Fold Monooxygenase.
Amino acid sequence: MIDVPISALEVAVVESGTRGVETLRDTATFARRLELLGYHRIWYAEHHHSPAIGAFPPVVLIAHAAASTSVIRLGSGGVLAPNHAPITLAEQFGTLAALHADRIDLGIGRGPGTFDEATARELRRGAGPATDAQYHDDVAAILSFLVDEVALGPLPEPWLLCSSTAGAALAARLGLPIAVAHHIRPDNTFTVLERYRAAFIPSRWCEQPRVVVCVEAICAETEQEAAWRAGPMDVVKAGLLKGLSEIPFPTPADAAAHPFTAEERQALAGFRAQQACGTPEAVVRRLAQLAAETGADELMLTTPVYDLDARVRSYDLIKKHCVATKAP
């Protein structure tokens, strides 16, 4: 049984054989359908220069989805502070929060959102990677601008995205809730949580430690179908293991024919074992285990599968099975 809210992280996959404009059209449909399923929130990730993931600004996707829905929370998972002026982020998300009161989250992250160094430099107007001090200053400035400069009324709910103890320490010092990237660096999850909870200082934003754990979850009626649906993302991950970032998001059929090496298969199997992939029973059991082990206040599922209907079906199966396990 899963006793915490369940949310979604949408990475706006651009499927092989489709165009980015089709992915954009799907985002509003996806938001409406997950709202009907009863999901708590949807966050949108910032990515750049990838054939598999659209370079769509989270703030634009949030505004688009908010205009198409009525109650589901929407936010960034996340906007990447080094790529933006702090006052710009404060103005953008302050405006969204004023337009859609009590529905907007501002999830802040550190990475460049790309594996291409030239693109990262362009995003930062020629500057190199942000130092720890610069990132800390940027996050503090965003929070300050939200309160002191924007002042449009309701504020967005700020979160810090964490996959390392350094991020956990910053979130604890600022008294921010955190979203732990278990779907990216699962080996760090428990160390990050321990550091965060031990050092947390209450703030105007959060009175006690508050944790979202983000996990990759791919669900289908059978284990075979779930593995089939997971295949395209496996191809992308295998490319990243080789240092290749410009890997398109293939069809499941093309992924099934991909020649994985023995080492890649072993690495992919190890990663999948720490996520949640399989039948509704297996996925919900794994999610419940992860929620219990981490003490998460909320789970956020990312489901990078080919085809909008298949992606929504995965979320539907998980939600229905969660409800079924709670029935008397």
